[in-house]
């Protein structure tokens, strides 16, 4: 399994440069590194000094690079989808649709990138994968996909199973699909073992997201107030999906007391600019990415006190909204939603109090 490192921050502050320097640093330490570029513009290639291919290629000792192209990934993934459909259904209907004719829809870039990173991770060829993505909410939603999909599957599976309408219509589904789609769908058309594989895949994704030894992000900022505010906002948003932020990388500036206060308790590392193409000073200044982090946990459940503490740095109480449906509490903050399932011991209980203080949302369960 690989350690996956990604970076968050405002555009134009040097995230790509930091990502490339990180890959160079870890490769020089003997780690097998894959640098993954998401930006389709020439910026990634210009900073790297090489134009990577759509498949990983070695560009230096222990260092490989790949430029993700959504159209290429879509064609490849479409073939995999058709293979999966053949496993799920006895009468596939997608076999005559070809990946080369498919257009790109919003959100496909992140979904296909996540799948590609998963495959690179599973290949066991790399100790570290450095991902240079958009570094914004789109990236965060990409990393939160396993958690979100798992929730949708669990939630809607239960809804459909309990629905009287679905139960009433189910005897008519098979003849209608046979007449309209010329396929025969019955309850045993779906292979349970394949559904279990999908559930296990999502479970592994959720475990990786919650483990800073598997996936970790770093904030990149400059002393500019907009860059600082953006980094703090992404910090709180990362907490919403359970992604650990391991520290702050301050680009081309010195650390001030006010900056230390802004990002407390995270460690801030100041790095210099690249002078005349010499990467070494920047590489030497980067933090130890293999160091275990003591970053605050996104969510803490205190059973004895019947409290839930959610760490939401960079946000204020006006940006936080709570709702509860049954055993799940939904926290909406930073344009992100997170569903927290109450422990079985609190079954039937509800949130009776909430306060926001020092970056923490504290919920009291009655």
UniProtKB/TrEMBL annotation:
Ranges for domain ArsA HSP20-like: 305-363
Signal peptide per UniProt: none
Keywords: ATP-binding, Nucleotide-binding
Location of the ArsA/GET3 Anion-transporting ATPase-like domain: 4-255
UniProt cross-references to Pfam families, sorted A to Z: ArsA_ATPase (PF02374), ArsA_HSP20 (PF17886)
Keyword ATP-binding found: yes
A GO term, aspect molecular function: ATP binding
Family annotation (CDD domains): ArsA
Protein family per UniProt: Belongs to the arsA ATPase family.
Protein name, per record: Arsenite efflux ATP-binding protein ArsA
Species the sequence originates in: Stanieria cyanosphaera (strain ATCC 29371 / PCC 7437)
